[in-house]
């Protein structure tokens, strides 16, 4: 394992999939200079130290090459890290281990286009009403559960909560782009998802099995 000083490693904190007034969203750590922490073991340790649901290391800012970690594992692809990194780097695409992610900015929304098969496994569990989703307790560690219910079927509005099922202190994920991508692929239609305390995720199916996922991004610090 290499050596790095976590106290002096620079990183940005974004909130991704913010609500209409810029509140809420899922925090994301971004180390713009990935060469400061080149070793995978050190990156994993740094992601665990930061404690965000995901942390991104940028290995080539011009080409958009990124490396994504949760506090406990490395991910080939994840939704809110890609949306946040694309917004921060202002690049037309990101290069992830899963594949090339197209990216674009459209007004206040940052969008990525990805494939459902890139997303980590999620159990999509439908409930009858949004109130049932609101009332759920955090389940014990185990499977990654995306609990959802229709708020307005005609308008494509959904209420959702994400429970990672990990034993790393993250009981609930405030906004989960990968799960939204999987749900969009299953339902085959554009969605407007209200997740967590007040985050907003927009999605839209695209030709040949691709799915767009978009949301607002705010630079926290």
Automatic annotation (TrEMBL):
Q: What is this protein called?
A: PhzF family phenazine biosynthesis protein
- Taxonomically, the superkingdom here is Bacteria
Entries under Pfam families matching the protein: PhzC-PhzF
